[in-house]
Design a protein that fits this description.
The protein has one domain: Thiamin diphosphate (ThDP)-binding fold, Pyr/PP domains (Rossmann fold). The chain is built from twelve helices and eight strands. 43% of the residues lie in helices and 10% in strands. The strands form two sheets. Strands 1-7-8-4-3-2 form a six-stranded parallel beta sheet, with helices on both faces. Strands 5-6 form a two-stranded antiparallel ribbon. A hairpin with a 2-residue loop joins strand 5 and strand 6. The structure holds thiamine diphosphate and magnesium ion (MG). Thiamine diphosphate binds next to strand 5.
């Protein structure tokens, strides 16, 4: 029951045993590049005044998000947060929809009802976050409870930050999931800061995952900059949940590489901390691993980079063509209609 600190990933053989072939690996690499590229371009759009409100990124969290997203099964569900763009990308959200969301356009997943990252596409198994953190954990727990009651072999994933872990709804969700042994994986994006609050003011134990034992399930800490280690641990936890083995708390350790949002210059984060974590940038790490273990050549790498660039260029164009929402349709999509719901008593 005690927390386990996951080993880093070694050879290609080990990765193959975890179920990934070379195509999968390059797909994950591409997803990480798309994720970062979207957020970098988002910054530019923000500076151009094209993004209303504030702007959030998950820089430094690309491996954690893509690693977990890639381990999900086709019918699994999740509630990713503001650092988890990689989950949306891995589940197949077309990048132009994200740019449209950023700019409050009709083509965004919320059809222009919200800008920024309060979005997801339920048809891809993802449910949009609300601002209140970690209010999506009880929602994910509810979905896991539904799967268990209906005897469906599906797993729910609920994301939360290490700061949000201090709130009651995190405790309530994990306690209930433990009591009922629900098919759920709680994924903590521990990026070491909750706005300006450091971890030692958020929790008094060494790891957030240490708490799992108190809820009666396993806790695992994984280096969130190692996409393959994250994948391996997420896969293990998800398949365990699917087979009736109950929840896991998977803590992905990273550093939030930018301010809380674009308005915050993170002056309170020690410079050495940024330097130390910049040296293990998740994308650079994976690129080196692919070169050393999967024969990624310069030509292939350049090809992937230019195809990502092309994808993002045309995505931006497509998003810019998407109109702002028509105020006359403001109420559309606010309430679910009976045909949107698949529970028998709504039919
Ligand atoms: C209940 C609640 N209180 C305060 C906030 C304002 N707020 C938004 S993000 C944030 C920091 C959250 O830190 P953490 O959970 O570590 O997630 P991170 O942003 O670092 O990924 C705060 C205080 C909120 N969204 N919800
Ligand atoms: Mg945090």
């Amino acid at each position: 029951m005690a927390v386990r600190e996951a080993e880093p990933v070694g050879s290609l053989q080990e990765v193959k045993e975890a179920g990934l072939d070379r195509e999968d690996l390059l797909g994950m690499y591409r997803a990480m590049l798309i994720t970062r590229g979207i957020e970098e371009r988002g910054h530019i759009l923000y500076k151009q005044g094209k993004i209303p409100g504030s702007f959030y990124t998950g820089r430094g969290n690309e491996a954690a998000a893509v690693g977990v997203g890639s381990a999900m099964g086709p019918n699994d569900v999740g509630t990713p947060l503001h650092r988890d763009m990689g989950v949306h990308i891995t589940r197949g959200v077309d990048p132009w929809r994200i740019f449209a969301q950023y700019m409050g356009r009709e083509g965004g997943p919320t059809r222009g009802r919200d800008g920024n990252v309060h979005m997801a596409m339920p048809e891809l198994g993802l449910h949009p976050m609300v601002s209140h953190l970690p209010a999506m954990l009880p929602v994910a727990t509810g979905m896991a409870l539904a799967f268990k009651i209906r005897n469906e072999k599906r797993v729910a994933l609920g994301w939360f930050g290490e700061g949000a872990a201090a709130r009651g709804d995190a405790h309530e969700a994990m306690n209930m999931a433990g009591v009922r042994q629900l098919p759920i994986v709680f994924v903590c994006d521990n990026n070491q800061w909750a706005y300006s609050t450091p971890t030692y003011l958020s929790f008094p134990v060494e790891h957030i995952a240490d708490r799992a034992a108190a809820y009666g399930f396993d806790g695992v800490v994984v280096d969130g900059t190692d996409v393959l280690a994250v994948y391996r641990e997420a896969k293990r936890a998800i398949e365990k949940a699917r087979e009736g083995g109950g929840p896991t708390l998977l803590e992905c350790l990273t550093l939030r590489m930018e301010g809380h949002a674009v308005h915050d210059d993170a002056f309170y984060v020690p410079k050495e901390m940024f330097e130390q974590w910049a040296a293990q940038d998740p994308i650079e790490r994976f690129r080196s691993w692919l070169r050393d273990h999967a024969e990624l050549t310069d030509e292939e790498d350049d090809e992937i980079a230019s195809s990502v660039k092309r994808t993002l260029n045309s995505a931006l164009e497509q998003a810019d063509e998407s109109p702002l929402p028509d105020p006359a349709g403001l109420e559309a999509g606010v309430y679910a209609a009976p045909e949107d719901l698949d529970t028998p008593h709504h039919k």
